[in-house]
What does this fold into?
Amino acid sequence: MNFEDGFRDTAPLDPSPDTERWERMVAGITAAAAPELARRARLPAPGMMMLLADWVRPTLSAAAVMAATAGAFLLTGTDSTADATSLTAQMGYSTSVASWVDAESAPSVEEMVLDWEGAAQ
It folds into this structure.
């Protein structure tokens, strides 16, 4: 298929042959738009406060949704008296390693050897 097979003649769209008609059309559009253009000219220039005011409603809506979600989370959260296991124990480390990490203390060599031998068995 050649590009020119579907070519359409666009000569009727060219405004240069009938300039009077073109000018009448432009004048008609301008006259129809004059009331709206005059209304827009009377509006104050949008300042920073007007631009920020446009964001008040969406911002408050988002804050309300976040507050409702946080409230629902707090109301349906787990009970604080539940069995609290340490993160290291949940990750699968032995209880002695978990106790060292939770206490933030360094184990002695003997404790490490005992833990290593216990893990090997």
